[in-house]
Amino acid sequence: MGDFLPYGRQSISEEDIEAVVGVLRGDWLTTGPAVGQFETDLAAHTGGTPAVAVTSGTAALHVAYAAAGIGPGDEVVTSPMTFVATAATAALHGAKVVFADVEPDTGNLSVAAAKAAVTGRTKVVAAVDYAGLPAELDELAGVAHDAGALLLEDAAHSVGGSWQGRAVGSIADLTTFSFFPTKNLTTAEGGAVVTPRDDLLDRARKFRNHGLVRDRAEQRYPDEGGWHQEVHEFGLNYRLPDVLCALGSSQLKRLAEFKKRRAEIHARYNAALADVDGVATPPSRPGADPVWHLYPLRVLDGRRRALFDHLRGAGIGVQVNYIPAYWHPVFEDLGYRRGLCPNAEAYYAQELSLPLFPSLTDADVDRVADAVRAFFGA
Description:
Blueprint lengths: L13 H11 L8 H11 L7 E4 L2 H12 L6 E4 L6 H8 L3 E4 L11 H7 L4 E7 L8 H10 L3 E5 L7 E2 L2 E2 L6 E5 L12 E4 L3 H11 L3 E2 L16 E2 L10 H11 L2 H19 L5 E2 L7 E2 L5 E5 L4 H10 L15 H4 L9 H9 E4 L7 H14 L3
Parallel strand pairs: 2-3, 2-4, 4-5, 5-8
Antiparallel strand pairs: 1-9, 6-7, 6-13, 8-9, 10-11, 12-14, 14-15
Helix pairs in contact: 1-8, 2-8, 3-4, 3-7, 9-13
């Protein structure tokens, strides 16, 4: 049967280990010089857009919505074809989440559906770069800005990619990244918010650190003493420690290599499965330069679960990404009902993520493709 193949995994080098050990031997474990270095290093991959490192991709979303100032009475329009955190973090700020349907072939937020969903209460339109393919960012920015809202790009899958020649992170008002081990680079747990706007950057930095105000010029009671700090708006501790930022800076040196290998694997799957009746290979879009985080195969004719069980039985750790966010009981209990976004539900019913990570060998890819072909008798 061969070794078990997970659908994703980290790629750690000796250089990564040395970078972490170097911090452990130093004076700083948490908020020290490696944080600023990682933020600077990350900005080199976002078209120079400043970054705020945080503890996870979920934290990045929570911080980004805080920076946008959302609260009760506000609405956030987003895609249901995402991990639940994209919507949950908006709901935790008290906003109403409005789910808009996706494009039937890419799983990305539909521009027409987003446009139909915005109202005078919409404060953020949150697009998701599903599988690493950037959403239709220019048109979605137009939809958001015409409604007086911000565009947030949930780029948990797409760090290192670009859209129409511009780096992911340089286009939306707010962009969030995830550095979980299965993602395009890792800090173990970690994430970041990037934004070109100074006001949003300041709010993100404050929310990451309890909302603390240490600048005397901004304080209400600046003459209390040299120790004084104030909280003007509530925040949380979402600080990413030095030891993990050092890992991130080291990983960023190989992001181009990771991207190249992911593209090779994606193309190898496409070639191997293009002629298989019963599946559809994932599309791209003109002007997209993705970092393929997932390989989302579409399994037709209601056979997704059978193929999932077949491949898992063969030691191939396929996954399904994602259950439509509003199907989770927490949203069901708020009154959301199945049938809300038909394209997303149809996409979910067919989607199966094949293993995709940089250390996957060509032989591994062929093993997976052969197992899929054997299931369909191809």
